[in-house]
Amino acid sequence: MRAAVITFPGSNCDRDLLVAMQTCFGRPVARVWHGDSELPPVDLVGLPGGFSFGDYLRCGAIAARSPIMAAVRRHAERGGYVLGICNGFQILTEAGLLPGALVRNAGLKFVCRPVRLAVVNRNSPFTAAYGPEPITIPVAHHDGNYVIDPEGLARLEGEGRIAFRYLDNPNGSTADIAGVLDARGRVLGLMPHPERAVDPLLGSEDGKPLFASLLAAIGGGGAHR
Amino acid sequence: MTLPITDELLARHKLTRTEYAEIEQILGRAPNLVELGIFSVMWSEHCSYKSSKIHLKKFPTEAPWVVCGPGENAGVVDIGDGLVAVFKMESHNHPSFIEPYQGAATGVGGILRDVFTMGARPIALLDALRFGSPAAPRMRHLVSGVVAGIGGYGNCVGVPTVGGECTFHPAYDGNILVNVMCVGVARADRVFYARAAGIGNPVVYIGAKTGRDGIHGATMASAEFSATDTALRPTVQVGDPFTEKLLIEACLELMETGCIVAIQDMGAAGLTSSSFEMAARGGTGIELDLDAVPLREAGMTAYEIMLSESQERMLLVAEAGREAEAFRICRKWGLDAAVVGRVTDTGRMVIRHRGAIVADLPVAPVSGASPVYDRQTVPLPRPLPLVGESIRAPLDPPRALLRLLGSPDLSSKRWIFEQYDWLVGADTILPPGLGAAVVRVHGTRKALALTTDCTPRYCAADPRAGGRQAVAEAWRNLVAVGARPLAITDCLNFGNPERPAIMAQLVGCIEGMAEACRALDFPVVSGNVSLYNETDGRAILPTPQVGGLGLIEDVARLVRPDAARAGDRLVLVGESTGWLGASLYLREILGREDGAPPPVDLALERRNGELVARLLARGLVRACHDLSDGGLAVAVAELCLAAGIGARLDSAPASTAETGWLFGEDQGRYLLAVPEASVEAVLAEAAASGVLARAIGELGGDALTLGRHPPISLDAMREAREGWLPAWMGETSDAKG
Residue B734 above 60 pLDDT? Predict the structure, then answer.
């Protein structure tokens, strides 16, 4: 497992994601600057939460055009793993690596609270370590309301690409969607923050199986495809 | 070119004729307009503390663990292992009333800069909010705007907002209070101060460009309002949290390189105060070239550039020859940077613009010789203690408790704190809504306990007692989670100090706070004064807001307020006389605000707190709550709701009337949830320490039973507590158990 976390100007969960990955993977994780045009040799790329470029245009829209995103796209096309959390999810939809879009919460307010989630697809490389019971992971976002057209939704549902659903929808997302996979199941975007749920002192360890799933899928070694 | 000094010109600059005469005396000539503007902001109440200075000296500011007390950008305390905590609280009251979103947002931005300018990474924000009557016009708009502004800024910069308070009283109808506290952590050997040094060193400006916003913000904050003052909106600045985030990262990276000699944020009074303060502290002079200042719009005058309060700007003195290094880091973060001056040995601030010298002022008198007033006070009438028998209870205790839990002041502030990212940084161990917030020091076993406290109704009834109580309650809140209280910051919010009754409140509160700080070894290390909080002659309640910081050496020793279990016994520590004067019960149930506030016996406070600290450290206590607003009944209810377990509370002891026993607000008290097996040890330790402690009930079931009254279900209490704020804001409550 070799992993990297990208820092965009305005990212603010980059350190948290890096620490969670290092803790769960048991090895160092690289930091990559958004202005770089190449990724180091890695299996997994993490796009962290935050407010890239202030989210002053649409959330994630400017970051999706950062130099590093061309490299992330090539990495995904090669079958590399990509995990986008919160702003990272928004960037992935803006970059076209995941379908749909994230718009303002239905309640119009920022919402930060632990939410209960159903793990819908337990066969993906991101979710295989989860059991059938609901999990609790915090959300913290203003624009987490997932929208997608009916055909797109039907495709997601038909292909088993809905990874997580909210049990108490905090933002009005279509079909309670909290996280989606790409067609190959190698790119996951989700609004909840699993990196904030890997330490019992913070109230939940339900984020750990996500990282454990990745470690199992990719392997503990340093092999690069 | 001589400036005609008219009364109107002086009034616009909020300077008196006497103050103006002093300016001429200092200069030996008449000032020009730029110089008059500089004096006006530097000598404003906001920057010079001219009404409060002689009284602020009464605060104890030293302790072995204090690294830096008041006078710098923020206070610094040692937290061991080569680390320090850097913290301060500041008000942004006037701007928030005029434009709640931007006023509150820029308040957050300003206090963040005060902390990271000292080399500390900000790790927590707390906000103490005082609003007017829920029935007052604009109040919903003000609450939602202020909350959205704090969230909008704090969430984006990625600093968790972990605590605070929010209460309502008609005295704040025309002047709400927005006090924000920021806490950061730095390496003890990497604390930066704002002292210009090194003759010839470049003065570097970094961050946002300078615009015409906020000119004279500091002087606005130094005058009272009239009802028509919404026209002041153009003096409120606009915040850009994205730029602030870049500034934080760029400044911390710059500090790592060692090329910074001194650094100061451009807050109130912008370029003027930052340059004068750095030069004054360093005993140097500075030459400024305003043509080099990055400007947002063309045609700005020297007066406007010097007085602009555009946000997200820093001024620093770099080591000569290392400018390129500084510029490279600023470029990486996409920030403007420019050399705008040099440090000199003249002791003068010489400002050039468009080829001419536009100001030439001696630094020390502008910065340090501002007028100091010993303003007149009058003795305030002291309310008499209420005699227990005079209070007749119109509601039975269960109903009174539900009413209190659902009152604006005690109701859950979930609607507010869920709009704040309280978890970013992944170190928030005690989230908002439980008591003191606890934030881990990243990468260590240490944690900081943080709280904001003040009971304005006590301060109004008796300023000295209220000042004492504000400090004592902060201390108690920190003790209750197992922290060692280290120091406080404060925000002294009062009305017009030119009125002797207001000045008496200010002096009384300061003296009461100072007594408590001294008695509890809890010094003041930073603070801020906000005066003229009145509209059309109606002042706010005296509100000396206290922000307390405590240290938990090992997070494993944290005592969580939500950790009580069924079967635990309830133990009350401290003495209960049933004191109802100035209590929340009196106000909410009987509609009265009279009576003396509960006395704070500081020796007892300390003895009780030290006992509780020992009991917690010995692991004898599962959960601990301090007693404050609403007394014992509310503390039990909060303990039950936090743990999700009911309780049975014994009837009042024969010596105490029931209403006072349940709702009295005697000070220095704690409620403990103690495992059955430890009760004896707890009571024995208390007896050996000369502290009154008694078992008064036990936890269990799903309802709270007060003596012989019918049980109150947890659901009913939760509904009462969670319902009010969302309902008032016109939303349905979505309380989560």
Answer: no
Residue B389 has pLDDT above 70, yes or no: no
**Closest B-chain CA to A11:** B158
Written in H, E and C, the secondary structure of B108-145 is HHHHHHHHHCCCCEEEEEEEEEEECCCCCCCHHHHHHH
pLDDT computed for residue B232 by the predictor: 54
What pTM was computed for the model? 0.95
Rounded to 5°, the CA angle B609-B575-B569 comes to 75
Say if CB B570 and CB B647 are below 8 A apart: yes
Span of B231-235, B245-249, B437-441 with lowest mean pLDDT: B231-235
Q: How far apart are CA B52 and CA B57, in angstroms?
A: 9
pLDDT at B223: 63
Chain-centroid distance, C-alpha B24: 37
Q: Report the alpha-carbon distance of residue B654 to residue B651 in Å, rounded.
A: 9
Task: Classify each residue of A85-106 as buried b or exposed e, where b means 16 or more C-beta atoms within 10 Å of its C-beta.
Answer: bbbbbbbbbbbebbbbbbbebe
Q: What is the pLDDT of residue B487?
A: 98
Q: Strand, helix or coil at B214?
A: coil
The contacts of residue A101 (CB under 8 Å, 6+ apart) are: A93, A94, A146, A147, A148
Cα distance between residue B530 and residue B198, in whole Å: 35
**CB atoms B155 and A140 under 8 Å:** yes
In the set A13, A24, A86, A94, the catalytic residue is A86
Cβ neighbours around B58 below 10 Å, total: 15
Catalytic residue at A195? yes
Using pLDDT thresholds of 50, 70 and 90, give the confidence band for residue A224.
very low
Pairing of strands B202-207, B336-344: antiparallel
| A169-183, B192-206, B230-244, B461-475: least confidently modelled range | B230-244
pLDDT digits (tens, 9 = 90+) for B505-551: 999 999 999 999 999 999 999 999 999 999 999 999 999 999 999 99
Q: Which residue is associated with the tokens 């000032």?
A: B31
> With bands split at pLDDT 50, 70 and 90, how would you rate the model's confidence at B736?
very low
Query: How many Å lie between the alpha carbon of A136 and the closest alpha carbon of chain B?
Result: 13
Q: Does a structural domain hold residue A225?
A: no
- CATH code at A90? 3.40.50.880
Do B155 and A51 lie within an 8 Å CB cutoff? Answer: yes
Digit-coded pLDDT (tens) for B120-134: 999 999 999 999 999
B293 to chain A, minimum CA–CA distance in Å? 24
Mean pLDDT score, A103-115: 97
Number of domains in chain A: 1
Q: Which two tokens stand for residue A223?
A: 């092999």
In chain B, residues with a C-beta closer than 8 Å to the C-beta of A112 are: 155, 417-423
* Chain B residues contacting A via beta carbons under 8 Å: 148, 151-152, 155-158, 240-243, 245-246, 333-334, 417-429, 431, 440, 555, 731, 734, 736
pLDDT at A225 over 50: no
Note whether residue A167 is domain-resident.
yes
Write out the H or E segment, with its range, that includes residue B17. Answer: helix B17-27
Q: What number of other Cβ atoms are within 10 A of residue B603's Cβ?
A: 9
Instruction: Tell me the pairing of strands A3-7 and A30-33.
Output: parallel
pLDDT at B392: 80
Tell me the residue range of the domain where A195 lies: 3-219
Question: Sheet harboring A111-119: ordered strands across?
Answer: A30-33, A3-7, A44-47, A81-85, A187-190, A177-181, A162-166, A111-119, A135-141
Average pLDDT over residues B272-288: 95
Q: Would you say residue A224 lies in a domain?
A: no
User: Is residue A30 a part of any domain in this protein?
Assistant: yes
Interface test with B, best of A5, A109, A139, A211 (most B CBs within 10 A): A109
Chain B residue numbers touching A200 (CB-CB < 8 A): none
